[in-house]
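Intended use. Records such as the Protein PAT1-like protein 1 entry shown here are meant for training and evaluating sequence-to-structure methods. They are not intended to support clinical decisions.
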Amino acid sequence: MSTEEIENIARMQKAATQITDPYIDDYYHQACLARKSAGAQLKHYFCPTLIRDTSSRARSKDEPHAYLQVDALGRLPFSSIRRPRPLLDVEEASEPSDSTTEKSASKSLDQEPMLAARITIEDGLCLLLDVDDIDRLLHFSKQPDGGLQLRNRRQALLEQLAESLQLVDPLTSNKDAPLSQNDDLVFLRIVSLPKGRKLLSRYIDLVTSGSELARIVCMAVFRNLRFIFGNLPSDSSIAGTTTKLVTAVSTCIVRMDLSGLSACLAAVACSSQQPPLRPLGYAAGDGASVIIKSLLDRATELLTDQHVASAYSMQNRTLWQASFDAFFGLLMGYCMSKFDTVVHTVQIQPAAAAVISRETPVELLRASLPHTNEYQRKQLLSFAQRTVPVNSSSSHGSGNVPMASEYVQS
């Protein structure tokens, strides 16, 4: 072949296998450059030229194996999480009379709940990549309609993911029956996996702060504090996903208004499980306390700012106070129960004092103080006075006052 013919063939192959868009051809390298040179002028902005059509990427459920579509090069099969190839076909030995019953009772792999959860996670992460593309396109390009169409599409994608997670909004008008444990079943299956917590963290970061979606997803987290933050995993990489989720929820909380905070705190009080109200820095995990403290601090900020507080109606304040009263009763009940348990199990006073100082969520008590009424402050003082004989090695009352005041100082 002549040199010209070889060059023509090479150009044809390059045109069929490569695209001139660096965002697609060299995504990871361009992402590294954009991260290292944030704010600098680049030859190519790290953003897509157009948004992909999700309908064209949808795979048929009836297709036995998924394929990667490549122009002019046929189809390349790749592993699919939906229909994994079986490694070995095994038939269990059973009596002839029971064979029909066992076959009907057995489920295929694609019907297993945790596989469905993993499929939902993969689809959700792919969907959030489309949201990232929209955000970059809005940032680096000017849209003829001011970006209205892209923003509407972005909101539709986020709502689609909320439907996939089956997030329940108990404040909707058509929700007459109280929430049951089955309402959050799909959500809990997803967040039980480390990758599911990554998906939830990223989703909370992308949801518009103060929106209805932000409130709904945060209420789902607050309803299930015990399940999500009950025990910190020993694996550092898995524990990191929980820590990122705590940061994402706390960041979302500090941008909420008073009505959203009231709904989230009410979700804690109405939960069927006792939330892990631990002091900050607790070895088993303090994620629940961190986000609850962020909520209380945010409410304090809103109610003490005269310009902001004047905008809230009496109904907003009443709703907040009702939510806080329910939570405060839960918090005091936990503290009293923990104190009684320590006193009955630890007989030596110095040891009991050390246990109480480790177990009492003093940070939550202090964060609650600006919202307490006269009766609740008396409860706090009574609890502090009950701890005095345990916290003090002497029996003189004059030396016990500073120790008691530690629990109620703001």
